[in-house]
Automatic annotation (TrEMBL), chain B:
GO terms for molecular function: cytokine activity; interleukin-7 receptor binding. GO terms for biological process: antimicrobial humoral immune response mediated by antimicrobial peptide; cell surface receptor signaling pathway via JAK-STAT; interleukin-7-mediated signaling pathway; negative regulation of apoptotic process; positive regulation of cell population proliferation; positive regulation of chemokine (C-C motif) ligand 1 production; positive regulation of cytokine-mediated signaling pathway; positive regulation of granulocyte colony-stimulating factor production. The chain holds residues 29 to 158 of 158 of the full protein. It comes from the Eukaryota. This is Thymic stromal lymphopoietin. GO terms for cellular component: extracellular space.
Length: 219, 130
């Protein structure tokens, strides 16, 4: 044909895959031992009224599971993820699978956002101790996370400084910050890169705001 | 089945990240030291053969363990990381399906699972020496 594509339906299949493309993330032990899987269509304008999603493969004792639909989000809460090997997620119109995608639940993990970030000034040590908490410390599976602490001086737009760490405590040296200035600080997490579990950044924690002290200049 | 061609590192990772939690959960606080170790294995593939035997065989007085999460994950791991393993498995899965009700976890079952923890531990240690 003029378009140079193969005559058979390849062009249509490729278009279908593109049109109905979707993205998913998993959260393990998000509610005690229940896991969740959340999928959305990449095109927000898609008419998803009669479209269903189904996952098959790499499930404990069952072959497939249907997603529940909440507005434009497709959602599963279950204990049945095998956590070993690939699953296949299909977009279905009635009984017909329109497009399918192979996914591995343990490679699309989005950790829960860290919380309770706080900053304590230590006058004697001339530094600020930053601590925060994460629900992943108590989990069985996704325990190894990398955290991204971001801080900036409030009036200075988008001048975020970043510190990556695997623990939940760090110190900022006073001399690295402006005197008598308001700062904003927040943190997010991602599965540790070389771990069995991989995936995406969590949402940011709520921000914490603190003011640096005025330092008395030597006369 | 001969386990010599398996991807041992990937098996170890899947054990440490998923199967281990299941075995510990099955023991549910019972101390694995409460049981004498009565099985052992010499090398990586020998350990996997023993693990397979103990996981999928039904000791007297204990419901077959093959329907437990750790057994389902063990089978999935072998199927993924050991070439040709799935082809040898069709009858075992049928046998597992025949069992209806899950009997209460008897002492016999706990002992068998405690032996499994020992075998998996031994398997992981054989990979440290590499």
């Amino acid at each position: 044909g003029e378009s140079g594509y193969a005559q058979n339906g390849d062009l249509e299949d490729a278009e279908l895959d593109d049109y109905y493309s979707f993205s998913c993330y998993s959260q393990l032990e998000v509610n005690r031992s229940h896991h969740s899987l959340t999928c959305t269509f990449d095109d927000p304008d898609i008419n998803s009224t009669n479209l269903e999603l189904e996952i098959c493969g790499a499930l404990l004792e069952i072959n497939c599971l249907n997603f529940t639909k909440l507005q434009e989000v497709y959602y599963i809460k279950t204990k049945k993820f095998l956590l070993i090997g690939d699953s296949e997620i299909c977009v279905k119109l009635g009984e017909k699978s329109i497009t399918c995608k192979k996914m591995n639940i343990v490679k699309i993990v989005k950790p829960e956002a860290p919380f309770n970030i706080s900053v304590v000034y230590r006058e004697g040590a001339n530094d600020f101790v930053v601590t925060f908490n994460t629900s992943h410390l108590q989990k069985k599976y996704v325990k190894n996370l990398m955290h991204d602490v971001a801080y900036r001086q409030e009036k200075v737009e988008n001048n975020w400084m970043h510190v990556n760490l695997s623990s939940t405590k760090l110190t900022l040296l006073q001399r690295k910050l402006q005197d008598d200035a308001m700062y904003e600080i927040k943190v997010r997490s991602i599965p540790y890169s070389s771990d069995y579990f991989e995936g995406f950044w969590s949402e940011w924690s709520p921000s914490y705001h603190f003011r640096t002290p005025e330092t008395k200049r030597a006369e | 089945y001969n386990f010599t061609d398996c991807d041992f590192e990937k098996i170890k990772q899947k054990y440490q990240k998923t199967i281990y939690n299941d075995l510990k959960e099955y023991m549910n606080g019972a101390k694995s030291t409460q049981f004498n170790s009565t099985v052992s294995c010499n090398n990586k593939s020998d350990c996997l053969a023993e693990i397979e035997r103990l996981t999928f065989s039904a000791p007297r007085g204990c419901a077959p363990l093959a329907r437990e999460a750790f057994a389902l994950r063990t089978r999935a791991t072998f199927a993924l990381q050991c070439p040709g393993y799935s082809r040898t498995q069709t009858n075992n899965t049928q046998a597992a399906k025949k069992t209806k009700e899950r009997e209460i976890t008897t002492k016999k079952c706990l002992e068998q699972v405690s032996q499994l923890l020992g075998l998996w531990g031994r398997f992981c240690r054989t990979l440290w020496k590499r």
